[in-house]
Amino acid sequence: MKIYQFLATGFEECEALATIDICRRAGIDTVIVSVTGDTIVTSAHDVRIAADCLFEDCDFTDADMLMLPGGMPGATNLLAHKGLCETIVSHYHAGRMLAAICAAPLVFGQLGLLDGIRATCYPGFEDQLPGAIVTEALVEKDGQFITAKGPGPAYSLGFAIVEHLCGKAVAGAIKEGMLCS
Hints:
By secondary structure, the protein is α/β, with parallel strands linked by helices. The chain is 33% helix and 23% strand.
């Protein structure tokens, strides 16, 4: 299994790193991709993270899931990346999974992918999800999409991704090992 997580300048570091950590603990090949043209990406709180690779050096055809962390202006910077948007739409049409947290579900919404889909996002971004059935859930899974509300539910999103890709037992074992209730 393989997940690509995309980082743009201004990403929310806890949303990115919590999900990467949990997915890697599950043995999921989780690749950190910079869309900035530089492998070092600066977060919303001025934390510099080294990505595994640059967007332009990747072939995403082996992806089981594409993951977008939120944060501002990280989410809007992801939306502004034409190549990423084309990759997301292609992945969607191939029937593969997409995940986003906080403000980042706006990327799926602005690409017109959420029509009739239950989704959640950070409060105040609901209008950026046209066609979605926006819920107040911390984590929402519907069809090809897993979305989460914000930084606090980042661990819950990670566990939901692992449960979807690896099963409930694996997600439960990691949760127990991390002392999460």
